[in-house]
Amino acid sequence: MLSLTVDAGLKSNTIKPSSLREVVVDSTVMEKNIAHPTDSKLLQKCRNKLVGFAKQAGIVLRQIYERVGPKAAQKVASYAHAKQFKRMKKTLKKQKNYLRRVMKDILRKITEQPSKEFFDTLQQAERLLKQEKTSKNKLYSLHEPGVECIAKGKSAKPYEFGVKVSVATTLKEQFVVCAHAMHGNPYGGDTLWETLRIVENVTDKRPYSCFVDRGYRGHFAERHDVYIAGQKRGVRPSIKKKLKRRNAIEPIIGHMKQDGHLGLNRLKGKLGDKLNAVLAGVGQNCRKILAQLRLFYAWILYQLLAAKSAA
Hints:
7 strands; seven-stranded mixed beta sheet; about 15% strand; alpha/beta; single chain
């Protein structure tokens, strides 16, 4: 789909063939459509799901904590707001005990092979009970278990929950030539060669020069001339000017988040992450092509009116 927009951009003169030789690469976070994750919410939701699956399977539980469970969740929120963290941890421990008892009761009484959703919820309950504050690969959502916690160093949003997306644009026109999701929160320098390979597949041309920020230091893209922001050695005045132009990718990512759907991904699973990233890039290119066509049609209208007035 991106290749088709690149072809359309070349035919409409939105971009020039020579522009495909120089690209800018940057990464951002595509947030997932989930509630802000807290241990109390996850424990409460997981216990309710297990109780529901147990009723569908005909399992009679000793206790489902229908009244005390929500009360404990409310207390955790109140204690956290009042900064009474000792009481909060004590109540949170109660919530874990409620979930643990329900899970053990189900495992004792289950007689048939559970459904896939039931089995996945049991595994998620086990993960929630085992994970701690400093654990890695934590579970942040029950319906989107692949969500990752990513810290980009922003003061407004210290942590974002979603997936990292690599975006590549042409240096001159800022036309999107790559947008792909990278699961596992990889380091930017380790993904640069993969991004440039995708750019080459999309445009059918090898990008000779690549301009990136300092987050890509230690890359493995030896086949390309990579220039990093703040670099001094081997930077000519023309390259220095192009490095300043690298900052133009930031508003493009902002438009993809605001005007497209890169800011909040509503598609499910890892495949949904990849599709949403590509569709956001396609939408941005289509908006640029339409803007170019509007200018072309305005020029035609001006020529027609000028010819009519001259006649």
